[in-house]
Amino acid sequence: MAGDAEPGPLTRRVFDFVDVMEHLAPGAEAPDDWRPLAEFVAVERFERLGTFLEVQDWRQYTEMLSQWASTIDRFETTLRRVTESGRLVYYEVEERHFRHDNVNVVNSMTVFAFDDSGKIQHLDVYLQQAR
């Protein structure tokens, strides 16, 4: 965020969404384990466009999250930049995926698009990682 500006209402929703995801990730084994995230999401209209241009609805997204969570012991992020503009939040972080004694570090930027009711309806995900 620029300076010490207070986060906007949609940015606060992104922060809450990510906090819940970080809390759930270590123990989530099935799509239903991600149910607390649905509070933030327009589930029926949700779409995620991933780093390989794959398109996922809410069910497919929670299945993918469950598969990912089964490969990690812990997940953390460090905020780099966040910008709220209209109904979009640009959220740039360093991600750390822990598994045993290994840590995989990637940079990601996710664009969160919100509907009129303040629910996440679309994600665009961009990723940088070492080869």
Number of helical segments?
A: 2
Oligomeric state of the chains present here: single chain
Helix content: 10-25%
Number of strands: 6
Termini separation (Å)? 29 Å
Which residues sit in consecutive blocks of at least 5 with pLDDT less than 50? none
Q: Percent of residues in beta strands?
A: 35-45%
Helix/strand structural class: alpha+beta
Descriptive key words:
alpha+beta, 131 residues, single chain, 6 strands, 21% helix, Nuclear Transport Factor 2, Chain: A
Protein architecture, described:
The chain is an alpha+beta fold. It has one domain: Nuclear Transport Factor 2, Chain: A, CATH 3.10.450.50. It contains two helices and six strands, in the order H-E-E-H-E-E-E-E. Strands 2-1-6-5-4-3 form a six-stranded mixed beta sheet. A hairpin with a 5-residue loop joins strand 1 and strand 2. The longest helix is centred in the first third of the chain and has 16 residues. It starts with 8 loop residues before the first helix and ends with a strand. The mean pLDDT is 93.
In short:
This protein is α+β, with helices and mostly antiparallel strands. It has two helices and six strands; from the N terminus they run αββαββββ.
